[in-house]
Amino acid sequence: MPRFSLAQIRCQLRHYHQRRRSRRQLLTLDDRLLEDIGITRTQAQKEGCKPFWQHSSCKRGSYENC
What we know:
It holds the Pfam family YjiS-like. The chain is mainly alpha-helical. It contains three helices and no strands.
């Protein structure tokens, strides 16, 4: 059975919280802002609706294949 330190668990929880917050904010952006960052409304919806524990399938800055 793997052992995890309290620090590792806290770090993972911070990552989950940040991912959840970022995805919720992505869903609030208007079309002009989405265009500025180079993604479509459909891509934003797809990413924004993922559960917080699921990693993004997109690499940072590259959303063409989502």
